[in-house]
Amino acid sequence: MAIKITETILRDAHQSLIATRMPTEFMLPIVEKMDKVGYHSVECWGGATFDASLRFLKEDPWDRLRKLKDGFKNTKLQMLFRGQNILGYRPYADDVVENFVEKSVANGIDIIRIFDCLNDLRNLQATVDATNKIKAREGRGHAQIALSYTLGDAYTMEYWVDMAKKIEEMGADSICIKDMAGLLVPYKAAELIKEMKAVTKLPIQLHTHYTSGVASMTYLKAVEAGVDVIDCAMSPFAMGTSQPATEVMVETFKGTEYDTGFDQNLLAEIADYFRPYRDECLANGLLNPKVMGVDIKTLLYQVPGGMLSNMVSQLKEQNAEDKYYDVLKEIPLVRKDLGEPPLVTPSSQIVGTQAVFNVLMGERYKMATDQTKDVLRGKYGQTVKPMNQEVIDKVIPGEERITCRPADLIENEMSKLESEMAEWKQQDEDVLSYALFPQVATDFFKYRQAQQDKVDPTVADAKNGAYPV
pTM of this prediction? Predict the structure, then answer.
């Protein structure tokens, strides 16, 4: 069976290497060539693209999606979706989730990859149901559930196999093993794929990062074990904290039963298009050579690269860089206290920051962040293992904890959100942009209005309504 490839250069590759700063206008000229490759899908939306478009690029993410859809006539478009958190940082009501799925598919998304930072499947059900509703009605839309891969006492082979069965029962169309920190090593990957394949008929996709240096070998073993799809990035934005290079994987399987049939000359033309942009990013500092290498600490400490760099900058600010190894030792302890969650956004930041506090304060949990409190309260959902009762008693003494699905406690909020931002609404999608990032979206709407009215808001006298023309 030919191995299928999802191309990540328009989303995760540049999110991992240049903080999601690739503008839409740069993507569009190469779309026609990318559309001829024969990819299983192109991942081009979701993740941090939404926030970065509004905040840094002054672009409407919905507009990007529509333009890409116009260009990709033969290739499915894919997005990354944080379950009940959508693309934001808090859980939203089901009506917002449903609306967002509806608009994503209407504007061009075919495959929605859905994950939860605790692997709490209850936080994914609303998105799967919303996608299946559209599929039943229109015959398009594909719900892929991604399991955040991690290591720890709780994460046995039995755990992953059991999750695969549950995902099939939930009505998902496929499974993704999402290895955000590059922790899945080659022989383990082969074993995992074989065991999962034995219990589910769903296609299995593998997503990993090159951070720890083993990703290409992991893909090789996974493909031999029967994985259906692998995520790769065109070589100018591959490797390091990104994915293995598309051209390398295509060449690896050439002439075998897994041959992709992709045209290397066409891929070379696409790589030639992206290479000057990569050089420009290196020259202006947007691409830091540090993220291009292998960071074996990832395997030693099981900490994703982004989490490590976050921790280092927190210690620097406090003039406490000498505490680096103390914090590294504290991270697994905090993770255990909080029920051993996978370390992925936002749980990685929560665990890392709390570990820094514990070390700097000289007393564990003397001070707890609001997010740590929310994890302990159950606001993010159910963890795989029980949380440490002593820590709960110390940090949120006597508080009632949430045991149901957290979103069950959130009232429908679409109409409230719409009335809050009515003055800026130019399309239904604007309400969803505002729902996820109220302040950032409002700033963008003001900017958009100024561009349309040809007014420079920086010199406008808003108080008296006077605008120099």
Answer: 0.94
